[in-house]
Amino acid sequence: SSRAPIRAPHSHHHRPAMASGEPAAKRSRVLDPAYRFGMLRSPLPVELHTQVHGCMCDVYAGDFATNGLGEDFLARMGAEGSVFALASFEGRVVSCAMLTWDGSVGLLGGVCTRREHQRRGLSRAVVTRVVEEASGGPRWLVLGTGSKSAASIYASRGFRGLSGAFEGGARGYNPDDLGEWMMVRDSAEPSAVDIGSPEGSTNIPFDVDAYVVEPGAVAIETLGRRHMGAAVLLLNIVAGTNKLRAFGINEGLEAEQRLAKALSDGDAVTVAVHRDTRRIYGIAVRDASSGLELYTIGPPSVGAALATGAPCVSAAAAVGPSLESECREFWERGYRVFPGLLADVAASARASMDEMMKAGGAKPTSDWNAVNSGGAEFVLQVDEQGCVRPGRVLKVQAAALASPALLEVLGSVAVRKQVERLYSVLGQEVPDHVDVFGTKFFPMWPGGTSVSWHQDCHYFGTASPQIISCGVYLEDTDRENGCLRVVPGSHTRGVFPHSPGSGQWAQGEWVETDESVAVDVAMPAGSVVLFNAMLLHAAHRNSHASRTRYSMFGHFVPASLNFSWRETDFSHGVYPDRHSIY
């Protein structure tokens, strides 16, 4: 029976022999007949739990038994949904591999061989058997390894580099790890991969288009062990950082261990699962202190579904001013526009900005990151060759320190009301005290620029979902005079790599993105836009011959949230351009 315990045959009660005359590193890969192999589907017989778990703890050592993973693997042995390849010697399990899958994606883990039985081909044998068992099942298999020799075994079975690397330092629960390398096998491309001598690792871009199918039916489910493969894959297939920052997942290399611990601790984690393929397109984590965190790929409607717990529908389908419809709209798009909210003060605010420009700027700077001088900085623009344009101001950094009009506008009752409501939409308790920091004014002269593609959070050193960015447009803004551009839904995809710009974009660090998915946000004078600080956004160049595009910006944050970036401390009570709003 496939459920029967694995026992060694009575005629082979001896220690497996090494290949004669060979050093330990060159032992034969011809399997000794003393080893017995078997495939078992979970739940495993109770008498095997201790043996298999003991084999894993013996090899992985460290805090494996208590860090979430060991507990997770033990739980899999007693539940349905996994398959185990086991090798035994004299009735004792000495090597194992485990595969759990749900639909299109499986997670390969628990691959280990007791030390006294290593270098005899056992790990390769159990991996081969468990991968063959998955034939005709999941399209993708994902795993993580910190071992070069293990990586070679996986590569021989068609696994390719996905993310991470061998970095020369210990990582995770295994003290022998050389790093953490996530690998994936696509059954549509199952050929073996030659990774040579993997001093580092080579990662091949994942075909996201092949993974994401039209989400006509996406269900919101509580995270379970059956979801682990697809959840780990989701968090590693696109490069980026701070994917679920407050939850403790950065690049995705930590995903398996962190999600296992979440299952053990009973954390409130939900996943957006495509009903037909069981592929996971998004993860939501709810925490009383940090609020709601999302990470998604695919259409923006996935984020909205996770935020509301409702099936995927377009935000356009939501009607009425209910909090639920606002929540769906914000989490699908990442921003909300309030046309003409401050129309009655736009003209006076423009006049105040003109006064500030005339009074200040006697000693302008070309340093685009002049955020730590203790006062307002008038940053000069550069031309297409990256040369400073004397007398042409790109922005006023810490503008609230030069003109009280900034705080009068950003702290107005109308704006404050919408900020408080948006905190509710974020799935958080409305903070008792809120600050605004990083105030800026952009005059956007004819022929000028302001910003290229970026996420505000990159410049703050934090990806906290509690930061709400705010733009107030004091003039009519459209494509011609440099309106705002956004990539809807990009706020749920982690922090993208930012690189220093050049030429007219030399004053900042920017993201390369597919502009075909960008949306122009044209607004009348006095309009306000609130958006998640992780939203990818930019502005068109002002191509008009005479029109400017005056705008103010600031970022709302709970007074209790402190952070820093590149030696600048943005903490409450420390950073000069951080001001109490209420």
How would you describe this structure in keywords?
7-stranded mixed β-sheet; 582 residues; alpha+beta; 20% helix; elongated
Give an overview of the whole structure.
This protein is of the alpha+beta class and 582 residues long. The chain is built from twelve helices and 26 strands. The strands form six sheets. Strands 12, 13, 14, 15, 16, 21, 23 and 26 form an eight-stranded antiparallel β-sheet that branches. Strands 1-2-3-4-5-7-6 form a seven-stranded mixed β-sheet, with helices on both faces. A four-stranded antiparallel β-sheet has the order 8-9-10-11, sandwiched between helices. The N terminus is likely disordered.
